[in-house]
Amino acid sequence: MTIESALGSVTIEEEPTRVATWGWSTQDAVLSLGIVPVAMPLNAYGGNAEGVLPWSAEKIEELGGETPQLLSGGDTGEVPFEEFVEAAPDVILAPYSGLTQEDYDTLSKIAPVVAYPDQAWSLPWQDQLSIVATALGKTDEAEDLLADVDSQIADLASANPVLDGTNFVYISALEADKINIFRASDPRVDLLTQLGMVVSPNVAELDADPSAGSYFYQLSYENLGKIDTDLIVGYFDNQDSVDTFLADPLVAAMPAIMEGRFAPVVGESFVMASSAPTVLSIPWMLDQYVPQLAGAAENVG
């Protein structure tokens, strides 16, 4: 099987048995297909005491597997090449990652590497599952999984019609006096559009450099008044972070904030589940996520 990527073409000669993953969520696609990786990134952010995301841990237990070798650098993006050598994988899957060309070339000396098809950190969860399934020879299983999760999303969208056509801006507030606005290509944004929501035209209007190649851009607090949207969705590590954000006078003065058209995603695990959605994390969090979005959307108009 030959798979093309933005960083190079790779040929996988036979079905892999020792699978290593890199990036925020590729391990979930592998686990959903019934394979426990030999190595995957440690997730200090949102993970359990071992550094495994809760839905991933549940699937490993369901499969009767043991916690894989956990690779350092999962939260920083710095590739631990020696740890990959130690894992001795047949293939390294990284379709949703920030691999550089140099990273890719070095990892390719260890095992065949499947990278992202276009831009880093911009692959929808459906395409991630499809690419992983192709590399593992499990495309039929992936189609069934995709249909099942799509059905869950459609059912919740149907049960919450207030979301249909509601436009939104997705943000994070990680720096003082600046917010990040996520572009339409980001998977966390794409998940909301699956629910019938619409990316606000304001996202493109405020984008000073749409060809930058990143999945977000920054806006200073002094320009918050330029945001025009039905709904603001944002992620926060904890409730204290939400309270600090809302306490800023420039934030508090935004019409969407004043009118309750604000849906904060709170808690590290919940942030990871919705920010890097996967075939496993979506069912884990969707029943909680969608009512929160619908509650804020009820205040539109």
Task: Looking at this protein, list some descriptive labels.
18% strand; Rossmann fold; globular; alpha/beta; 13 helices; 2 domains
Written description of the protein model:
The protein has 301 residues and is of the alpha/beta class. The chain folds into 2 domains: 2-138, Nitrogenase molybdenum iron protein domain (Rossmann fold, 3-Layer(aba) Sandwich), CATH 3.40.50.1980; 154-297, 3-Layer(aba) Sandwich (Rossmann fold), CATH 3.40.50. Helix content is 39%, strand content 18%. It is built from 13 helices and 13 strands. Strands 8, 9, 10, 11, 12 and 13 form a 6-stranded mixed beta sheet that branches. A 3-stranded parallel beta sheet has the order 3-6-7, with helices on one face. Helix 6 packs parallel to helix 13 (281-297). The longest helix is centred in the middle third of the chain and has 21 residues, at 139-159. The protein is globular and about 55 Å long. It starts with a strand and ends with a helix. The model has no long low-confidence stretch (mean pLDDT 96).
